Amino acid sequence: MTIVVTGSAGRVGSKVAQRLLAMGERVTGFDLKPSGIAHAGYREVTGAFDDREAAADAVTGARAILHLGAFMSWLPADSEKLHRANVDGTRILLEEAAKVKPERVIFASSGEVYPENVPDYLPVDENHPLKPRSPYGLTKLLGEELVRFTERVAGIPATILRFSHTQDAVELLDPASFLSGPRFFLHAKIRQQESFGNTAAVALLKAIDDGTETLVISRNENGRPFKMHITDTRDMIDGILLSLSNEKAAGRTYNLGATAPVDFSAAMPLMAELTKLPIKTIDLPGSGVFYETSNARIRNELGFEPQWTIDRMIAEAAAAWNSRMQAA
Ligand SMILES: NC(=O)c1ccc[n+]([C@@H]2O[C@H](COP(=O)([O-])OP(=O)(O)OC[C@H]3O[C@@H](n4cnc5c(N)ncnc54)[C@H](O)[C@@H]3O)[C@@H](O)[C@H]2O)c1
Predict the structure, then answer these.
(1) DSSP code for 166
(2) Cα 70 to ligand 1 centre (Å)
(3) Is 0.90 surpassed by the pTM of this model?
């Protein structure tokens, strides 16, 4: 019997697979891309989640399925691909899973199933109405429905984990990082806003660009700095493995992420001090990013206790930044 980990080439899935292997489990990885994991207890299926033959192969002998893979994009042009990977892919994977009857499915959902940036109340807990505002968030909500449908109809106990933003600490100060680059670095942010077609934001960002690499504190149109959770991958892995090992997690839905949100205006000075990069502040059109999500349920029910504060993550990111600078 094996534990199937989808997204085995990704940030979270690859490290979950390695942790399970280190614990002596047999693991089957399933991803579009090869993971590079070499271990006697590891088997890998390379293919798309909506490829039924690949999905059937992947779930063979599954004791549990950790569905951690997904396509993440916020580009309008990617809507088709999002639904194919995250909705059809999840449906086909679950239909094949129903034939092998694993003891548990764990599904990586997202805080984007809530309207995080325009919440009805804060902190956002699991009872908050589900009203996604991005096509990606919609695909995650549809994925949750497919997981609960399979639980009801095929009798496969499932745990839904609504993930916080998750980063490897070293990504925080990497301008090339898909998620952290545009969040903290001016040039990456300009490129991202251009790709979204946000012409007003692009004009404002370009107006403060003097050509040098710069950290940027984003605020909304009223000067309120962005605030959101950023969770270290290692804490997410702990939460996933706790959910897998604890019977109480069957049938439950949890917000999984860091306890305290990150106020960008408070975190950025430390980033600047450690990298010696200049900081600029930009007020962007709209209500901006400003939320706090409660992880109280998973802490109280499963004993989840995140270890990686943002300051610890930044210290590790700065060490990686300095090695890159020395190597350059
Ligand atoms: N990282 C975050 O900030 C964050 C936040 C909320 C939710 N999540 C969710 O957590 C999970 C893990 O995120 P991550 O950061 O490891 O993502 P990631 O992008 O690093 O990894 C996702 C993996 O899924 C694979 N994949 C994508 N589409 C596929 C398809 N159609 N068929 C097969 N494989 C496919 C990719 O090749 C990739 O290796 C995902 O489900 C993601 O949606 C992530």
Answers:
(1) E
(2) 4
(3) yes
Structural domains for the chain: 2-163 (3.40.50.720), 169-228+260-290+309-327 (3.90.25.60)
Q: Please say whether the beta carbons of 175 and 188 come within 8 A.
A: yes
Structure confidence at residue 76 (pLDDT): 86
What is the C-alpha separation between 205 and 218, in angstroms, rounded?
10
- CA dist 16 → 7, 56, 59, 185 (Å): 10, 21, 17, 29
Lookup: tokens for 38: 């070499």
Pocket test for ligand 1, best of 6, 8, 12 (most atoms within 8 A of CB): 12
Closest atom of ligand 1 to CA, residue 8: 39
Pocket test for ligand 1, best of 92, 163, 293 (most atoms within 8 A of CB): 163
Which ligand 1 atom lies nearest to the CA of residue 14? Answer: 16
Instruction: Tell whether ligand 1 has an atom less than 6 A from the beta carbon of residue 33.
Output: yes
**Average pLDDT score, the chain:** 96
pLDDT value for 328: 84
Which tens digit of pLDDT belongs to each residue from 231-279? 999 999 999 999 999 999 999 999 999 999 999 999 999 999 999 999 9
Distance 198 CA to ligand 1 centre (A): 25
Substitution site in 72, 141, 231, 256 for ligand 1 pocket (most atoms within 8 Å of beta carbon): 72
How far is Cα 180 from Cα 166, in angstroms, rounded to an integer? 10
Is residue 229 within 8 A of residue 308, CB to CB? The reply is: no
Identify the pLDDT of residue 51. 98
Q: What is the pLDDT of residues 72-127, one digit of tens each?
A: 999 989 999 999 999 999 999 999 999 999 999 999 999 999 999 899 999 999 99
Ligand 1 close to Cβ of residue 68 (< 6 A): yes
